[in-house]
Write a structure and sequence with these properties.
single chain; mainly alpha; Helix Hairpins; 2 domains; 3-stranded antiparallel beta sheet; about 60% helix; about 10% strand; elongated
Length: about 270
């Protein structure tokens, strides 16, 4: 009998939310589409099977009866153990067949079964938002200012609904429009005559207005912004704790390019 709690790496008393989050972590790290592990296919099937049993209260209750008897050995043997074991095994076989199909699709399509991170109550049926991260691992001795830096990179797809993706695109357009407006404002005669500090303040106010309008649109539609919330996604937090930083290349954390990229993320 398999120890599903051990497969997922969770405690016997774990809550449904804990099991769900742990599955998401392991699915991202072991899905054959994104994992370099040669055993990713079988590992993914195992964790999917375990999650399928433990994530549904009725199925978990039956499994727990078997677990307590045959693995933890904390209870007397139950009379209908064979019947319960047969039911659990049937569910496990169904889960494995489903997992085999899901292991063949792209990870971005797999997460469409998950909940949208940016808008509560919706499924992630839209284009994911990709959060790029990197971690410097050493020096390779290459040429050029960045050629000698070795790093691991990762692109975390954050589940997003079509509604959230559309709103984020609309938000980008609104902020881009105000950015263009700011540029044209500096061609107006009275603006040209302003002092440098006044020009900077005017530019800031125009961009701020675009930003506030964008976040008002998000607020009215109960959707989280990318800039303030993508970093809160549990996989992003996990990799940040493991030393990963924002950006697809070490130059984003070792040169002024990272500062420039950060400014553009604020504006757009």
């Amino acid at each position: 009998m398999k120890d599903y709690y051990k497969i997922l790496g969770v405690a016997r008393q774990s809550t449904e939310d804990t099991i769900k989050q742990r599955f998401k972590e392991l699915a991202f790290e072991n899905h054959p589409d994104v994992s370099d592990n040669k055993n990713a296919h079988e590992t993914f099937i195992e964790i999917y099977e375990a999650y399928h049993i433990l994530s549904i209260p009725e199925k978990r209750a039956n499994y727990d009866l078997l677990y307590d008897n045959f693995i933890a050995k904390t209870k007397d043997r139950i009379q209908n153990a064979e019947s319960i074991m047969s039911d659990v095994q049937d569910e496990a076989n169904t889960a494995r067949e489903d997992a085999k199909q899901k292991s063949k699709i792209k990870y971005r399509d797999f997460i469409k079964d998950l909940d949208c991170f940016f808008t509560s109550g919706l499924k992630a049926n839209g284009k994911p938002y990709y959060y790029n991260m990197h971690k410097t691992t050493g020096i390779s001795g290459g040429t050029g200012p960045m050629g000698s830096i070795k790093a691991k990179t990762i692109s975390i797809p954050i589940p997003r609904s079509k509604k959230a993706a559309s709103l984020h695109s609309a938000g980008f357009i609104v902020k881009a429009a105000f950015f263009v407006l700011m540029i044209f404002a500096f061609k107006i005669e009275f603006v040209i005559k302003l002092q440098l500090l006044e020009k900077v303040l005017l530019a800031f106010l125009i961009l701020l207005t675009g930003g506030m309008l964008t976040y008002l649109i998000y607020k009215l539609n109960n959707t989280k912004s990318i800039y303030f919330n993508a970093r809160k996604y549990f996989l992003v937090r996990k990799y940040r704790k493991n030393g990963y930083k924002r950006g697809f290349h070490p130059m984003m954390s070792t040169t002024p390019a990272g500062i420039i990229a950060g400014i553009f993320r604020v504006i757009f």
